[in-house]
Amino acid sequence: MESCMAQRTDAVLNISTSVQLAASMPSGFQPAQTPDPTAPVAYFPYFNRTYLGVAASLNGGNVLATFVHMLVQWMADLGLEVEESTVYSRMIQAAVQQRDTHLTITPTVLGERHLPDQLASVTRISSSDLSLGHVTRALCRGIVQNLHSMLPIQQLQEWGVERVMGSGSALSRNDVLKQEVQRAFPLPMSFGQDVDAAVGAALVMLRRHLNQKES
After folding, report:
1. Beta carbons within 10 angstroms of residue 59's beta carbon
2. Among 16, 38, 83, 186, which residue carries the largest CB count within 10 Å?
3. Which H helix or E strand runs over 209?
4. pTM surpassing 0.70?
5. Each residue of 67-92: pLDDT tens digit?
6. Which helix (H) or strand (E) holds 84?
7. Where on the phi/psi map is residue 21: left (φ > 0), alpha (ψ -120 to 50), or beta?
8. How many other β-carbons are positioned within 10 Å of the β-carbon of residue 152?
């Protein structure tokens, strides 16, 4: 475990196109012999006869990309041209200024492995929560809350997790996602290149397991 995480009490969070949150299971843990396909957390053999508990969401940076593409397409329909990179940076700036919102977005446009038929939804819509900042804040919050519903902070703490190490392209370039991660998982956090190097081996192993499961 130490070869991939600084300590066994670290959880690793990667938000790129999709999302993975993984933590080392306590010593002696053994998963059920017959995995439950509706369970949001899967368990994979790890180093030194331990297991890795993983929540792997299909909805991450790809949801933000879908939203950006939608906005660009709407503007094109109105006869305006704008680069997707410009839209992305402006909407993140707006959401940083909008610290809270009552708008609620469930962002599961791709469903989830354990809920393949689940779709996205928007609720608690009011005329005061329709700005770009409100919608972007709610979308980023929804991505993190969806992950939290799969693997909540209480479960991580029961496993002995004391710190979250964050990585991934979507997380590194989005301060709003970082804020929402810290809001949902109020533990010490580490972000950046050192974290990317530390969690790389764990994520490679995780993706190999997921690819084998889906093939």
Report:
1. 24
2. 16
3. helix 193-214
4. yes
5. 999 999 999 999 999 999 999 999 99
6. helix 84-97
7. beta
8. 16
